[in-house]
Amino acid sequence: MDISASALTAQRFRMDVIAENIANAQTTRTASGQPYRRKITLMGQREPQIPFSERLKSARQAVGNGVRVTAVIEDESPLNPVYDPNHPDADENGYVQMPNVNTVVEMIDMMSATRSYEANVTVVNAFKNMAMKALEIGR
Amino acid sequence: MIKGIFTHSDYLEKALDASWLRNEVISNNIANVDTPNFKSSAVKFESIFNEAITSKKINAKKTNPRHLDFGKKSIEPVVVKRNDTANRMDGNNVDIESEQIDLVKNVIYYNTLIEKYKAETDRIRAAINEGK
User: Fold this and answer.
1) DSSP string, B21-84
2) Has residue A56 got a pLDDT over 80?
3) What is the pLDDT of residues B55-93, one digit of tens each?
């Protein structure tokens, strides 16, 4: 159950990052003065925390412990120059550097995150049903 | 006589534990569907169980009651890496559809085992109550 819970948390976090990307698709000036850059969520395996003695005798050693978000990195792909000389952030040639957020890509990512979330909800329900069934023993 | 009455349910218990472990492994696979370079795992149990109950035990000459017979295999599930699915571009080989199917199969298997276990306890209870 904890495994699926960690995945639900990670997918929700990914969803938050996607929402931030879409919300900032037109942001030309962030706190650092630079245009907004698309953020990418990196995921990694969460390693099981089992004492060494347990590891030796138990088959559980190979069962993972779910997933976690390891880092959020900025997409280093080039920004999107748009000709708009009246814009306050335009350079001397009249170009504004727009964020490298592609709304279509973000939408696809969002769908992927939603589906992964749903898959994990299915697993939680399966676990729940099994546990409830086990309670019927001896009734 | 009393010694043998739980033999059958002991086997069922082993299978139930293996099935629960399998569910954990499947849930870990599904949780890591977006993790680069993750390799999915599976639980091997039925073949181990079959081997253990069909293999012949050799009775050893024992000088201590705690000595074990030869060739007695333990019935424990083993987690193995899956290598029957294709790697994606990011090095991840989780096949989400096959994991979902395995999950459904495993839940049905678990529920079946629980029903068998319940039937077993009902039989023992009937014997205790002299069939009343």
Assistant:
1) HHHHHHHHHHHTTT-TT---EEEE-HHHHHHHHHSPPBPPP-SSTTPPPBT------EEEE--S
2) no
3) 766 666 778 877 766 655 677 888 888 888 888 888 899
- Asked if this assembly's ipTM is beyond 0.85, the reply is no
Read off the DSSP letter of residue A48.
P
Those residues whose C-beta lies under 8 Å from the C-beta of residue A113, and which sit 6 or more positions away, are: A11, A14, A15, A18
| Inter-chain residue contact A119 with B79, CB threshold 8 Å | no
Taking contacts as CB-CB distances below 8 angstroms, the residues of chain B near A120 are 27, 30-31
In B88-107, the residues whose Cβ lies within 8 Å of chain A are: 96, 100, 103-104, 106-107
Inter-CA distances, A64 with B5, B9, B38, Å = 36, 29, 10
* A20-38 pLDDT tens trace: 999 999 888 888 888 899 9
Largest interatomic CA distance in chain A? 81
- Minimal CA separation from B36 to chain A, in Å: 7
> Which pLDDT belongs to residue B73?
62
Q: Does B6 touch chain A (CB under 8 A)?
A: no
pTM: 0.80
The backbone torsions φ and ψ at residue A91, rounded to the nearest 5 degrees and listed phi first, read -85, -175
CA distances from B128 to A139, B1, B55, B124 (A): 16, 13, 33, 6
Cβ pair B34:A116 closer than 8 A = yes
Which residues of A are less than 8 Å from B78 in CB distance? 59
CB proximity A38 to B under 8 Å: no
